[in-house]
Amino acid sequence: MRDLGWVAHFFCFYKTLSKEPSAFKIQDNLVLGMNESYGFLKSMKFTNQAQLAYCTNVHRGNSWAETFNALEKYVMDVRKRVASDKRFAIGLRLSAEAGRELSDPAEINRFRKWLDQKNAYIFTINGFPYGNFHGTRVKEEVYRPDWTTQERLDYTLLLFSILEQLLESGEEGSVSTLPGSFKEFLPKNTIPELMFKNLETCALEIERLAGPKNLDLHLGMEPEPLGMFETTPETVSFFEKLFQSTSTEEILRKRIGVNYDCCHLAIEYEDAHEGLDAYVNRGIRLSKLHLSSALSVIPNSNNLEKLRSFVEPVYLHQVALGKEGVCIQRIKDLDLALDAQKANKLPDADEWRVHFHVPLHASPGKELGDTRIHVLDTLFWLSKNPEMCKHLEMETYTWEVLPDHLQAGSVVEQVAREYNWTLEQMTNIGFELA
Hints:
This protein has about 425 residues and is of the alpha/beta class. The chain has one domain: TIM Barrel (Alpha-Beta Barrel). It is built from 15 helices and 13 strands. The strands form two sheets. Strands 1-13-7-6-5-4-3-2 form an eight-stranded parallel beta sheet. The longest helix is centred in the N-terminal third of the chain and has 19 residues. The chain is globular and about 60 Å long. It starts with a helix and ends in a 5-residue tail after the last helix.
């Protein structure tokens, strides 16, 4: 039996929060030690060499000029609030367009100088969204191009070539990507051989890029609801088939692994300890951990009406219906789930979990809950297995589309509060800041 320890102690506490939202702020401040000054944050690194950043996909930016403007305007402002006197880690998001523009030798040289001047560095890049990620319909298009295409392979290798130039000799760098494809795009239960071929090509090129500077470069494929693989069993099955498809298994195991998103796996009603153990026991690398939280509700008529404020036209908000802690049905998007429920076309469930990234530091309230317990369970597991993953990234990219009552303060203020919450939980669990 695994040691639940600290997480078990807080499980009932978090269940209480989801039922008593009016008590959240008081409880959060007293029990979790929230500190509005953020002055206690001294570093983004821990004594086990783990590194923490927030993903800049929260900010608009499709071109490199737009992306760099967000780094100057927002990221550096966040940095002032949480770690002004320490070297600051940035979780960079680059579209294909921005990546091509940044790859110009003169441009990347300017960016390296800027990082040095700002005492900042890049250790990870989000390579999931290929194109524009804000202000337009994204939905299932975020899975295009998928890993059956040359465009996805070229884009991913472009990001690794950029990362290679931004890292110092001997350092570790990661790129995250989609779970192969979207289930709707491919015939049921089939994995195109071309996908395996492209991933093998990618791994071999990562190996080549890593060699001269002895870098530890790796790609993290991210299970997501209704992705080609979404649950831990599906993900393990995919990787076993991938490894069996190649004569270079050792390189693939070294260079390609899982980007474990807490929001996504919580939506699947999975236990973090069991899932993370499954990857490690099967020799599947944990490339990165996304610290993120999903929306959770008891599906009574009052709560389902409140969910309508989360329906929006930009992102896909998959819904997983649960019964006694087991997923019994998935629906592609929140509006479709609400319409089906209204028409009495859904099975009886005792919980809905929605792919809507909600703030780590604050419950949605109004009798709506979240899955932060999965984040805490993941961090507790990592504290017991500190060598298994060194890259941590907060990823709440939905600030622009959150209902008004959750948009308290600017994006910079909200991200700073997420740092506050995350660092506080990590130190409570036992992580030590370097």
